[in-house]
Write a structure and sequence with these properties.
The complex is a heterodimer of chains A (about 230) and B (about 600). Helices cover about 30% and strands about 25% of the residues of chain A. With about 230 residues, chain A is α+β, with helices and mostly antiparallel strands. Chain B has 17 helices and 28 strands. The two termini of chain B are about 70 Å apart. The chains are: A alpha+beta (about 230), B alpha+beta (about 600).
Amino acid sequence: MIKKGNLHPITQFMDRAIAIFAQLGFEVVDNMPELEQEYYNFDFLRVPADHPSRDIQDTFWTTDGHVLRTHTTAFQGRYLKNHKPPLRVIVPGRCFRNEATDQSHEAQFYQLDGLAMDKNITMADLMGTVEHFFKKILGKASEIRFVPHHYPFVEPGMDAHISWKSKNRWLEVLGSGMVHPEILQAVNLDPKVWQGFAFGMGLDRLAMLYYGIDDIRLFYQNDFRFLKQF
Amino acid sequence: MKAPISWLKDFVEINETPKKLAEIFTLLGAEVENIDGDTLSLEITPNRSDWLSICGLARELAAYWGKKVVKPEISKLKYSNKSQILDIVFSDKKLFPAYAAVVLENIEIKPSPEYIQERLKKVGIKIHNNIIDTTNYVMMALGLPLHAFDLDDIIGQKMILRESKTGEKLKTLDDQQREPPAGSLVIEDDKRLIDLMGIKGGANSGVKPSTKRVLLQATVDDPKRIRAASKAIGLVSEASYRFERGVDQEMIRPSLEMAVGIILNSCAGKVIEAFDIINCPTPKRVIKIDYERVINLLGTQIDKIKSQVILGRLGFGVDGSKIEVPSWRLHDIFFEEDLIEEIARHYGYNRLKRKIIDKKRAVYYDDTVEKFLVNAGFTQALTYSFLSKKEVADGAISLIKPLSPETAFLRTSLVPGLIKTAARNAWSKEIKIFETGNIFTPEERKYIALASTGELPNNLPNQKITPDQRLAKLNKLRRSLNITQIPYSQFLKNVSIITASYKHKKISYRPISQFPPAARDIAFIVSTASVNDKMTQAIKDADERLVIVELFDEFTSEKFGRNKKSLCYHLVFDDRTRTLNNGEVARIMDKINKMLQNNFGAKIR
């Protein structure tokens, strides 16, 4: 007889997250590069080199001038070059941040990005779909609120917070907004005709919340005592 | 940005508790991270430079409540458009949109009034003296950084505002020698540099205990130049932080007037002259808004009047569909969508309609390869994309600022990661692991690798890693592994994959220890009628410290008797605080043996 092995908890959780969007017709795009061009990771998304927005992301640069993507959102420029709306895609992937590791920070982690574009997609669709996602993945009782936030590539922009009952506070779990008109124009789409929403979330963080894991580094240490619990 | 509520009350009437106020700010987009007494700590995003002042935050509250902003009592000054005392020269007027200043005489340097010191302390600014504290106080209150010079240190009473050249040096007020990059904005008197504009003043001309005459300066500086200089010399000041994000040019006069008022209250000084030189007037920006579009973008019915009221309260000029941007929002309001966000923010994001996106045909997606391997007994690892120089092939991509030498290169193979995983789990009886992920050879490609202490499928290229080999020695791998690594796409073709069912488990994670666990095997004979899952669960329940209970073998044999089977389990014991000793493990094993004998009639082998 063969005893089964274990699928990594990140993979399990990612599968569940993707399935919720796949049910709504989102296509999975999982072949976007981890090693990116500065243009796609920053400039296309309206984060120019000389702007304070660049400070927020601590970046790994390679000696040949590339960047390890700091967010899966880097896919947008590449994808929209060859795909026209209507479209809806979900993009999982490994991302990297140049910051010291501790219980809640790792240099590599997973994110899930989403993008939906059509003639009549509104912010109501964004907030309803995001709420639907969190209720499905964390349970019907989860409470969610939206808080205005700034990302150069969306306007209006917002964060989604879920209520973290045990700590009596709200936890930021996702960034999102309506695709910025300059980005639509950059791919020859008329903002008066096409609208879209975009979102991105840190998967490790959500998985930690879901499973009750207290140290993000456990995901990449691959201790069997950890992996074989899942 | 720290904001004491008592200071906010100078500008707007507040009747809410600190907690309620924090919630209001957060829901408007200025997240309150902390409340310390009456001081709120807010996270201000780079686009809202106007929130880097008490009056800016108060203005937001006033707009939200439909109240009036209280204009502070300010002594008016008479301005001329040039100085009678100083000879001011601009190398390029476009670089210096506005320059204004007040000359004060008969100044006495002394400590600031109590309320100034208390407020500066609350917002985390160091206390100096009445002049310097006033410049900082006004910056925090109104958002425009001011700088005070000792007028008698400005040689020849000449000021040349220009770009710096390569190699120019200046010792700044914090006593550090600075060499800003060429193109930085500087002020030079008749002999030397006296100010690194927008960042820090020169030590050679700063206010000191003997100062009698003060030049109080207010300028508007180009954000890009300030940021470039600040980054190059590695110096961020409260002033440069604000200039980088853009300041409100219309605050020049109110800032100078507030400062003068405070200074003249603290000592018997005198205003000699005030002047402002406007090289580029505050830009006027009108954006057209389509009120139907507001509804179409947000997906919520917000009527035109409501939108106009919100924009009006925020200080926008509303003339039908023509919206004029107030001077303090010129750095972040450019598009119609920016206006729509303002309307949505003040309407309340959580009052807006929510609907799930219209259903389209569900998409099928599955990671069949990973599930196939798991059903074949392999456990999935996810290892680091970074490795040390010794673990990558020649020509590997290197990082400019890695976190450590061990993580300075991008992996050219998945094998080192699997070796590390095997070494980490040295206590485990067997290793059967796999990883799928990207490697950089230096092209980025998706690969899959398997490692096992047992056999691997023989239609895959096999390789044996033994403990004497370099990679094994480097990672302290003390046993042999069979390894295979091929492109992911090839794996799909070479191995026939039967779509396997897989059920995701919701578990409550049990924390593990960082100390090595103890591992034992147990084998026993039991009736074939006994249900394996029940026995597995019973063993798990026997002791809290049992973290892994794996059935790895089951068989029947004549030797055992009729209707009997033998079961073999791997057991792993993990105590949170230490490694269990043999005696303790033996006692737990004893407990398990007894339980199996009593509950299942098992015969321990």
